[in-house]
Design a protein that fits this description.
The complex is a heterodimer of chains A (116) and B (114). Chain A has 116 residues and is mainly beta. In chain A, 0% of the residues lie in helices and 54% in strands. In chain A, the strands form two sheets. In chain A, strands 2, 4, 5, 9, 10 and 11 form a six-stranded mixed beta sheet that branches. In chain A, a hairpin with a 2-residue loop joins strand 6 and strand 7. The chains are: A mainly beta (116), B mainly beta (114).
């Protein structure tokens, strides 16, 4: 099955600096890569996603890049703010050819701390 | 537009007891997923419904676990004879069939088995 590795596990940045989180996946059939932000005591919140036919996607201060050849994708947050502090998860979707499931396989998460 | 809701938010139970959780997906979302998240880990897939049909189950879903979505709207997840290893956050997510992949999560139910 799919395996998603995520690095680093913790990341501290000064407010205003950029943060980069990287993930690799194992199954070349994966074609959808979302990123989630999870605050303490809450469920994961979808913040951005990218599909395999796109190399980069940007939404204000957040961008995601995908390298299908190398099987890795990254989250970039620019001009970080204290409210960006949370745990971020990458995920990959592998299609089950029989059932058409879109189950997500998650990385282990990155705890981002933005220091004011 | 209300998001995915889950009830209860917290549940403390003694080992051996049965527990049931409920998930109400976003209106008109016909796909519903259950995940389990333990401390310091990402969510792990448990099972998936399209409308009322349970189409996929993870090997994590032992015989003590059962999920239903009887009318294709809300879903329940029951754990029988709970064990301490069942302590986790149980997350529900939903998506629209035309949205294909965008899964929106509820706040989760935190289960503690003592």
């Amino acid at each position: 099955g799919e395996n998603v590795e995520q690095h680093p596990s913790t990341l501290s940045v000064q407010e205003g600096d950029s943060a980069v989180i990287k993930c690799t996946y194992s199954d070349s059939a994966s074609n959808y890569f979302p990123w989630y932000k999870q605050e303490l005591g809450k469920g994961p919140q979808l913040i951005i996603d990218i599909r395999s036919n796109v190399g980069e996607k940007k939404d204000q201060r957040i961008a995601v890049t995908l390298n299908k050849t190398a099987k890795h994708f990254s989250l970039h947050i620019t001009e970080t703010q204290p409210e960006d502090s949370a745990v971020y998860f990458c995920a990959a979707s592998i299609r089950n050819s029989g059932a058409g499931s879109y189950q997500l396989t998650f990385g282990k998460g990155t705890k981002l701390s933005v220091i004011p | 537009d209300t998001g995915v809701s889950q009830d209860p938010r917290h549940k403390i139970t003694k080992r051996g007891q049965n527990v049931t959780f409920r998930c109400d997906p976003i209106s008109e979302h016909n796909r519903l997923y259950w995940y389990r998240q333990t401390l310091g880990q990402g969510p792990e897939f448990l099972t998936y419904f399209q409308n009322e049909a349970q189409l996929e189950k993870s090997r994590l879903l032992s015989d003590r676990f059962s999920a239903e979505r009887p009318k294709g709207s809300f879903s329940t997840l029951e754990i029988q004879r709970t064990e301490q290893g069942d302590s986790a956050m149980y997350l529900c997510a939903s998506s629209h069939i035309q949205g294909v992949d965008e899964q929106y999560f509820g706040p989760g139910t935190r289960l503690t088995v003592t």
